[in-house]
Amino acid sequence: MYGYRKNITQEDVFQPHSELRSSNLGNNAIDLWQEELKGTYKHGRKPSLPKLIVKMLAKEYLSISALIVICELLARPLQAFFLGEFILCYSDPNLERKPYFYACGVIVCVFCNTIFLHPAVLASHHLAFKIRVICGSLIYSKILRLSKEALNQRTPGQILNLISNDVNIFDRMVFTSQYLWVGPLQTFIILGLMYREVGVASFFGLALLLLFIPLYFVLGRLASKFRLKASLKRDHRLRFMNEIIQGINVIKMYAWEKSFSKVIFKFRKLEINFIKLGLYVKSVAITYDVFISTALFLTMVSGVLLGEKLNASSVFIVTTLFSTLGFTLNFFFPQGMIFLSEIFVSLNRINDFLLCDEVLPVTRNVGAKGTIVIQQATSRWEKDSDRNILSDIDFEIECESLNAVIGSVASGKTSLLNLILGEIPLESGAISINGTISYASQDAWIFSSTIKQNILFGSKMDESRYADVIKCCALERDLSLLPNGDKTIVGERGASLSGGQKARINLARAIYRDADIYLLDDPLSAVDTRVGKHIFEYCIRRFLKGKTILLITHQLQYLKHVDSIMVMENGTIITKGSQSDLENSGFDFVRFLRDSDQVDDITEEPTVQNSTSFNQAKAPIQGKPTGIQMISYHTYKDYFYASKSWTILLMCFSLFVLVQLAMSSASYFLAYWVNKEHADGFTSIMQEQSIYVYVYSTIILASLIFTTLRSVSFVNLTTTSARILHDRMFSNVLHATINFFNLNSSGAILNRFSKDLATIDEMLPNAVMIAGRTLLSITGVFCVICIVNPWFIIPTLFVLIILNYLRRFYLATDLNVLRVEGQVRGPLYGYVNVSLQGLSTIRAFSVQKLLTEEFYRHQDIHSSALDMASTVSRAFAYWMDLLNVIYIIVITLFYTFSADSFGVNIGLTISQALQLMTQLPWGVRQSTDAESFMVSVERVVEYDSISKERDGKGATKKPSNSWPDFGKIEFKNVFLRYSDTAPYVLQDLNFTIRPMEKVGIVGRTGAGKSSIIAALFQLVDNEGFIFIDGVDVCKIDLPILRKRMSIIPQDPVLFTGTIRSNLDPFEEYGDEVLWKALEEVRLKDVVNGLPSGLNCEISQDGSNFSVGQRQLICLARAIVRSNKILILDEATANVDLDTDTLIQETIRHKFSNCTVLTVAHRLNTIIDCDKVLVMDRGLAVEFNHPYLLLQNTNGFFYNLVQQTEKVMANTLNDIARRSYQKAQQEE
What we know:
With 1227 residues, the protein is α/β, with parallel strands linked by helices. The protein contains 41 helices and 21 strands. It folds into three domains: 1-355 and 633-944, ABC transporter transmembrane region fold (Up-down Bundle); 371-570, 3-Layer(aba) Sandwich (Rossmann fold); 969-1049 and 1124-1135 and 1155-1226, Rossmann fold (3-Layer(aba) Sandwich), CATH 3.40.50. Residues 590-628 have low confidence and may be disordered. Residues 372-595, 969-1202 form the ABC transporter domain. It is a multi-pass membrane protein.
C-alpha cells in the first residue's frame, strides 16, 4: 500500500534478512573458498566454485525440490484424472456416479498447487540472491588481492561485467533447474495416465515432445556458446567505455569522438550479432505452446487412424496432461538447460577470475622498527617476460632517516616502491621490512566522499593530529574557501578539486596514518614553490621527524636536507649515499643541482579548475522524474519504435495475433470434432474423418509457419531497438557537457551501459515475447470459454476487472522498488570501480577489511532492494492464482449443479480454465516483468534529456581548411561559469595574443588558468567573444575548432589499443610521420624495440609505459597534428628534469612558428616567453613580457618570483632580461 500511494526512496529499503547478509554469507564463502584452494592444491585438481555453492546451499535447494514434487508430480496429474472422471459423469448416461467428489478433487488439486508453488518460487529467488551475494563477495575479496599482472589482463570493464551481468543469470536458474529432474519423472507418470485413455496413440505425441529434448541439449550448448561470445564482446565494450568516461576531457579536446564511436559501435555490433543468435535459440524454447498443440495433434490423429473412438473424457484428459507435460518439457526443461549452460559459462568466468594471480603478503620482520633491507633484488611485471624492471637492487635504509630516490623517466623509481609494498613479485633476492607502512601514490587517489573521510581513511579521529596534518599539508586555506570545509563532498576521483588539492589530500592521508615507514611517490611535483617548501619543511622534516621516509622526487633542491640519496637508471641503482658521498664519488651532482635551480622553481600549484560547484558534486543528473508513475507510453514507443518503421512493428504484432488465432482454432476445432462424433455416432463420422484430419493438419501447419515468422521478426525488432538505444545513449553521453561527468560517477554511467543494456538485450525480449504470447493465449482461452457458454462472460469480466486492479496496485510498487534498485546498483558498481583505481593505496594501508565491510553495506542494500522487488512480484502472482482458483471453482460448480451439462462443453471449458492456472499468473507476471525491465529502457532514455554540447547545426561559420593560418587569439569581455548557479570563474577577460607568440599563464589555485583552456576548447559555454584569426569560436562546429588546436594535458592519458591508434586514431597519417614524431620525442628506439612496434598494444591506463613516456607520447600526438596553436596544461608537472628539458626543447624546435600557451608549473618554462598572463580570481591582472613585469616591484608576477630562493630569483631575472633583449634585437 505504501509503494502504491507514495514514492519509495533508498531510505525505505529494508535491512536484509540475516541469511542474506554479506557479512554472514560472504565471509563464510571466503573461508570455504580458501579451504577449497588448499584441498585442490593437495589433490592436484582445479578449485571449483560450483562445488562451493553446492556445499553451502544444497539443503535449501532440496527443500525447494520437495515443494516442486507436491505441485508437479502429485497435484497436476491428479487434477487431470479428476477432470476426466468429472467429464465421464456427464458423457455416459449409463454410468450412475455423482460428480461432487470429482469436482472437489479438481478444486483441491488446483488449490494445493497454488499453496505450494509460490513458496517454492520465492525460496528459489532467495537462494539465487544468496548465490549473488556469495559470488559478489568472492569477486570483491579477490579484487583486493589481485596482482599487477592480473590487473593488466583483467580490465575494470571485465570485472564490472562479472559483478553486474554474470551474476544476474542466477535469478532465473534456481527455479527452472528443478525441472531438469522433475521433467523425466513427470513424463513417466503422465505417460501412464495417457496410455490409460488413448492407448498406443499416446506414444506418438509424447515421442514428439521427447524428440525435442536432444534439440534442447544442442540449443543449450549454442546458447552457452553465444552467451560466452557476447560476454567477451561486452567486456571489450565496457572496458573501452570505462576508458572513455575516465578520459572524456582528452577525447573532447582532441575531437576524437568519431574515432571512439567507431570502436564502440564495432564492439556493439559484434555483441548484438551474438545476442541475436542467442535470442533465436531461446525463442525456440519459448514456443512450447505450438509444440504442445502439435503433440496433441499427432496423438489425436494417430488414435483416429488406429481406430480409436474420440470421446470427451479421453480427449480433454489428454489435452490437460499434454498442457502440463508440454509446459514442463518444452518450456521449463529447455529454459533450465539453457540457463544451466549459461550459468556454467558465468561460473567458469568467475572461477577463472578467482584463480588469477594475487599479490604476496608483505612480511614484517621483528627488528628495529623503520628499517628496510633489500639484497640483490630482481623483479619483473610478468612472469613470462624476459625483461626485468628492477635488477640487482641492493640497499639498506636505517630507521628514522630521510631518504630520496631520483632518476630519469622509466628508471624504476615507482617500481621500487611497488616492490617494497609487495605490488610486484620478487624474482630473486630478499626483502626485509620492519614496521608498518604508509604510502602516498604518484597519481592522487581520491574517492567520492568528504575530504575528512579521504584523509582519515579508516583511522580513528585524533583532533590534535588531524589539525596538525591539515596545517603541515597546507590545506587550511583551501578548506576555509570550501563551502563545508573538510565536510565538503568531493566527486569521483576528486572531480571538484584542483590537481594540487588532490595531491595534498592524498599526502595528508598518508601522513595522518601513524606508521613507522612512509613511502612518498613524488608528492611535491603538483604544488607550487611556496607550498612545496612548506610541505617539505613542516610535513616531511618536522611532522615526520623520527620516522623512516623514502621520498621519490624531481625537486633536487631539497636533496641537501636528506640523509641518503639513491640514483636510479634502467631499473637499477647506479649510485647511492649522502650528497657529500655522491660528490666525492665523482657523480655529476653539481650539474643536477644547477639544473634544478633553473628548472624546479615552481610558480604555482597546478589547477584543474572546478567544473561544478561543490554543492552539486553528488547530485545525479536525472533526465525525467521517477516517482510512483507507471511506465509511460513514450518509453514503450522509444523501445518498440526505435527503428522508426511502422511496417516492421505492425508485421510483428500481426504475426503474434495470427499464431494465437491458429492455436485457439485448433482447440475449438478439436472440441467441434469430438462433439460431432458424439452427436452423429462413430460410424457416420468415419466418412468425414479425412476432411477433419486435413482441416486440423492445416491449422497446425499454419501455426508452425506463423510461429517461425513471429520469432524471426520479433528477434530482429528487439535487437534493432537495443542497438539503436545503445547508440543513441552513447552519442548523448559522448556529446554531453563536462558538467554531466562531474555530477555523475563513472559507476552510475557504466551501470546504464552494463546492467541496463544487458537487461534490454537479453531479459526484456524474452519477457516481452512470453508476455505477448501468453496474454494473447489467455485472451484466446477466455474467448473459447465465453463462446461455449455466454453466461461465463460475467465471471470473466469480474476476473479481468480485479486482475487489472491488482496489476496496477502491485505494478506501481514493483516499478517503484525497481527504480530504487537501479539507483542503489550504481553506487555498488562505482565502489568496485573506485577500489580498482586505488588498490595500491588500499593494500599499503591494510584497510581491506574496512573496504570489504563498506562493499558489504552496498551489496546488502542492493540485495534488500532485489528481495523487496521479488516479494512484491510473488505476492502479486499469489493473488492472481487465488483469483484463478475462484474462477475455476465457479465454472466447476456451475457444471456440477447444471441440469443440461454436456461432456464436451465441460471438458473444453474446464481444460481451458486449467490452462489459465499456468498461463494467467505466468503471463501477467511476465508482463509485469516486461514492464519492470522497461525501467531499464526508461533509464537509458533518460540520457536523451541530458545537457549536450552544441552540435554542428548551430555553426554559422565554416573556416577554411588551413584555418587558423596565423594563430592570433583574442579574448573580448569574456565571462565564464560552469553552471547557471555557480559564480563566474572568468570575469571580463580582455587580452590579445599575437601570431606565433609564446605566452605563459600563471596564477594561484582557482585563478582561472584552466578555465581559459576550457573556454578556448569550448568545453563550457562562455559569454563575450573569443576570436582565433578573427573567427568567433562560438560560431564554429566544435570538432573543427578542437581539431585545429593541439593540447598536451597535465595527466597523460593513453587508451587501450595500439601506439598507432593513440597517435593517429583516424589513420590520417602514414607510418613515416608517426615514426618521425616519435623520433622527435626520443621514443623511436623504445617503440622500435617493442615486439610489434607501432602496433604494440597499450595496457589499461598505459600502465606498460612510465608517466614520463606517456607524456612524451602526448607530445608526439601534438607533433603529428601539426597545428598552429599549442596549449600545454601543466604538461611537465609529473616528469623529471630531463623529460621536462626534452619537452621544452622539442616545443621550441617543432612549434617555433606556432602560437604556444603554457599553463605554468615551473618558472623556467615560461620565464623566456614572449608574454606572461597573470590570473587572479578570474581576472587578468598582468599581461606583458616577463622582464617588464619584473620591473613592477608591487606586481603579482614579481611577488611570485621573489617567493623562490634568492639564487633562483636572480637566475630567473637574468633569463627574462636576456629573452627581452633578444626580442628587442629581433624587432
